[in-house]
Amino acid sequence: MRAARLVVVDDDIPLAQELAQLLAEVGYEVAGIAGEAQAAIELVGKAKPDLVVMDVRMPGMSGTQAAAVLSAEHPELPVVLWSAYDDDSIVKAARQAAVAAYVVKGCGADELLSAVGTLVGRPGEDGAGP
Amino acid sequence: MGAAGLLVQVAVRASGLAPKPLYEVATVAALAAAGALPARRYVAHAAASVAFVLGPALTVAGLVALAEGRLHWPLAPPGPWWPTPSSAARTTVAMATTVVLICLPGTALLALPPTTTTAGRARWGVALGTGAAVCCWFFALPLLLLAGGLSSAGAQQGGPGAALATSLARLLAPAAGPQAALIGRLVLVAAGLAGALGALSSAATLLEAAWHPAGPVSRGPGPYAQRRLLGHGRGGRPGRRAHVAPAAAASALGGAAVATAGSAPWALATLGAAGASALALTALAPPVMGRHNPLSRVGRAAVAVTWVVAVIVALSAAGVPAVATTGGGALLGLAVAYRRTARSPAARHRGPFAHPPGHLATLAVLGAGATTVVALLPPGPRDGTAVVWRSLVVAAMGVAIVVLGVVPATLRLWWDRLARVASALSEHVLPALLASLEAISQGRALPVPPLELAPLQAAVRALERAGPPPWPLRPVVDALGEPARQALALAGAVGSAAGAQGHQVEQLVQARTSAIAKANRSIIGASWRQRQLLERTVRVAESERAFLAANLHDGPIQRLATLGLVLDRCRLRLERGDPEAALELVNRARSDLGQEIGQLRRMMSELRPPVLDQGGLQAALADQLATWAQATGVSTFFEPVPCGTLSRDTETVAYRIVQEALANVAKHAKAGLVSVSLRPDGRGALLVVRDDGKGFRPVPQAELLREGHFGLAVMRERAELAGGHFEVKSAPLAGTEVRVWLPLAGNRAGHAPVAALAGGLGR
Questions:
Q1: Which residues of B touch A18 (CB under 8 A)?
Q2: Residue A91's Cα: distance from chain center in Å?
Q3: Which of B118, B360, B369, B635 has the fewest Cβ atoms within 10 Å of its own Cβ atom?
Q4: Residue B629 scores a pLDDT above 70
């Protein structure tokens, strides 16, 4: 059974690369990294990932807006917002954008990995991936 | 005056009682006395006085002559009811009649207030009528009897009419023939008509004076306005109805008296005459000659003529008892009229009944004396002695009239004028002047109202028009007239002063209003500037905080999150049993952490550069430039020139502006060299940041803000909030120069809350 394909979106490229390496080491297949929302939308159209991990505050289109666009274009595609903000207003906007999960950037990626595992399954487990 | 004099002379000549020269002298004396008075109304007064004294006196003289048999009584009716009075009784009746006839009209005329022009005109009419009355009273009775006599003379030759004509012809021209008798008749007819008019005029004047004592047609708001308010307007319906009825009744009674005089008992005629007299006087009692009589002129004339005819016929029919009853009826009518007048709102009177009793008595005594003298003159053919005596009597009467009638009336006119001046002065002008002066002393402008000045102006004008006053009054006129003129001049001056003061006050008010408006504008402007300052302060502070938050998000938080991910990977490797790979990640994390600490330290320094506190602005700028050059690779040149001491806050502002300018250069300019200079400039320091980059086309700040370029706007706001000026010079391909002037410490133009802006980050 193949590992779930993920796309990482963050304007902080070093952070995105580090997250991609972590996800890969965990066992996921990272289909690509995007530094902004518009590039992410294009990348999702090409790579057909199983899940998108996306930052919220980015130049141009925000992660929340991009999530809404992706939800409209790919209703089955879960989007996990991963942000340094934990304001209620931002979380509320994310829920309205129909994102699958909202995870606050903390020390480490346990919560993120847990959310991703819940959504697409953990690597090596049955039923993981579509 | 001429007409009156002519009539007097005609009458005197026609009477044949005295040689022409003496009567002319008497007439001229009287008229000269009257003519010496300055105004026509005095002439009217004099003529009226003469007429009302002389005329009745001559009338009574004629009656006495008739009674004594020196004249024929042409229509003396035969019969037992015609009394044959004694000479003494006839004289007594004649004297009583004279007193009544003289006193009432004479008093009425002299009581007329000579204050208005219209009243003067009315008196002119009275004078003309009464001038005619000088002769008419003597001839009226024979004339009207003659009318009856002539009518009957046509039917009965040799009747009473022929006898009267013969008597008159003998009286007028004793030596003349039938032509003279005819002329005498014609003269009598004319004089009789004039006498009738005069009698009517006299009665009308009398009654008007009783009804409307302020004068036939006085002006002013007093009595007229009161009458209007009370519904007694001119020609108002109630008044017209009230007076038409007695007039009609008087005419009817008079007609009845005339119709029954010849055949009915004498008592009927007498009663008819008396009743007609009473009713006629009642009807005529409203201002007969003025505009306010509800009867028309024709109506009044009809009433009067009817009355006169009734009286005359009654007299001819009933003799002496008719005289008494007619007089009584007239007095009754007068009393009724007076009662009505007294009830009117205008009854604050100077009517005949308010006339000084002394004057009344004087006139009565004069008339009685003249009648007595004439009556005592020896009868018989007119010899030289009798003519002289009669002439002397008439002349003395003229002098007495002038002295006792004209002079008091003249003096009274002047007293009236002076009283008007004094009244206007004390009741109108002086109080108004006082009020104006008080207002001026209180700083208000209050000229004397023209309405208050008008009475005095009119009174002074009347005084001036009257000409020189009689000598006894001259000092009084001078003593009152001059102050009145001075009061008017003073009122004019006060009006000018009030106007000038009003102008000054107006100017002062305008100046103060302008100053207040200016102060208000200044306050509003200051308030607006403060509000703007606060808004700008808040805006700048908020933008600084937003920038700081963004930096925290993009910087430390991201770095630390990355470190967290690195540590997660490290843990995974340890869990997989690969400590070497884990050690690699630990070393990397340690290095990243060190870098992040350095980043945070730099951020701290940017928030408040320590060098700014320790080395001052020059050192801070040099340090900033060196750091920036190292980071961007752009060459920098800094020339520190000692300048005055800037305040700590202003130094921070200068540092931030340079920081912002350098950020802009790094972002947009593509410059190879940046030079910064700080040098003294007046009472401040001039900071210039110049680069050799690509420059830009200067655009308005609003456009920059719309396009999201806040750097220049923030720099300008920082400079201006610090009390300085900001300027940018640039052109495409010509580099950019930012010039900032900042005040030295203690020379802050405003009270800018620079401290609030000192914090924050450059960009």
A1: 562, 565-566, 569
A2: 15
A3: B635
A4: yes
